[in-house]
Specification:
Helix content is 80%, strand content 0%. The chain has one domain. By secondary structure, the protein is an all-alpha fold. The relative contact order is 0.16. The mean pLDDT is 89.
Length: 121
């Protein structure tokens, strides 16, 4: 297994818990799930850019933030689609959000590795 994936999951674990807590609080105060995911994603991206870049991919290049945002834009859309379909089959929205954490983390790692923090030769 790629050591960076293990680091990514470890660094992302804390961010994920925080992001899910933001999502759950926003749902509990009545926000629509699309807005709750959007706010959680934005906060997560801002926090996660530096930790992922430095601790996982050993990058200090701040110019990559736009690619990082693009990846999380894709993750946001995939998350919304997943929540929509799980909601259609009567999965509780809190449970649906939790179900999607690991798949979204794996997709995020793959996209970040390939498009954002790729090794330069």
């Amino acid at each position: 297994m790629d050591k960076r994936l293990i680091k990514f999951l470890a660094v992302g674990g804390l961010n994920t818990l925080f992001g899910y807590a933001v999502f759950a609080v926003l749902i509990s105060i009545g926000l629509h799930y699309t807005i709750a995911v959007l706010i959680g994603t934005i906060i997560g991206v801002l926090f996660n850019f530096k930790t992922t870049g430095k601790l996982v991919f050993d990058s200090h290049d701040n110019r990559l933030i736009w690619k990082f945002f693009a990846v999380y834009g894709i993750i946001y859309l995939l998350n919304i689609i997943g929540l929509y379909f799980l909601k259609q089959i009567s999965v509780d929205i809190y449970v649906a959000g939790a179900i999607l954490i690991l798949p979204m983390a794996l997709v995020s790692f793959g996209l970040n590795k390939k498009y954002v923090f790729r090794e330069r030769n």
